[in-house]
Amino acid sequence: MMRTRIGLIKPLMLPVLACIIISATRAPLPVHARYKGAPKTIAHDFLDIEKGLGVVGDQYPALNALIAKATAKIAVQKSYTTEQAIGILHSIDSLLRGEGYTFGKNLLLGRGLERKTIDCDNYCALYIAIAEVLMVPIVPVYAPNHSFIRFCFDDGSYVNWETTQGESRPDSYYVKELGIPEASILAGVYMKTLSRKEFIAVEYNNVGAYLMTDGKYAAALPYFNTAVKLYPLFSSAYHNRGSSLYAIKRPDEALADLLRANELDPSRPGTHNTLGDLYLDRKDLGRALGEFNASIKLDPTNYVPYNSIAIIMNLQGDKLKARSWLKKSREIKARYGK
Question: Which residue from 40, 62, 211, 313 puts its CA 20 to 30 A from 304's CA?
Answer without folding.
Answer: 211
